[in-house]
Amino acid sequence: MICRCGNESSAWLCPTCVNKLEYLIVRVDAVVAEVRAVIPRLTLTATYGDRAPGVRAQHAPAPVSVDAVSALDALQRWMLGTCLRLAEITRKPLNGKTHELLGSYLIANMPRLATLSWAPDLHPQLETLVKDCERITAEHDPRVFAGRCANCDSDLYAVKGQPEARCGTCGATYEVLKWREGATAATGYYVGTPAELSRALSHPEYNLNITVNQICMWATSRHNKPPKLARANEATDPDGQPLKPKYRLRDVLELNAKKRKPLDGTQAA
Hints:
269 residues, alpha+beta, 3 domains, disordered C terminus
């Protein structure tokens, strides 16, 4: 059987897709907590009709954001509906209806879930719902890039002006300034694909316009010479599946600095 991602698998979801779905389910708890935290601080102007002849419509702030409440409701309905659909097959009762318990139920029954024909649709559905919730919190609290999580290697984003950043994947919390100082000095800080590195370097922390093509050129062997940019990860995973090439952000920064430095020692334009 071929998984939707193209990998051979004995079930509808290959091990790689199972891991992706589990990571996304784990993220739900943190995303829900963030949206619930900002709901009381969000407002929506409501317009009321004429209360008496000749009186103009009245405007007043509603106590919560309708978009935020709707996004959480849609996420809750999806998780509950998916668990109930799975429970009809496993015959195992649900332990509760909270996001935490529903997520635990899905992960605990993941081996059975991976064998179902409708399982490949779950990741894109859940990803859309999670992104809707993240968009609401991002619009209310603008975030800036704060580094990479040491536990799961996910991007960290902190609310501008706040001292802490929380990983949306595993929930680990970091003090932004201390983490940046330590991570900057660490070997191999921020390992990513050319696209990930280019995107990270465009953040205000670096404010550099280094294109994906430029990074790929540095990583390509030319004229029988080794590439300027060394690969930072293995070529295949433990199962022998090919992995996307990843490189160290520090190496890209060093190559960019050499590129900008003129040969005659004068200051670059």
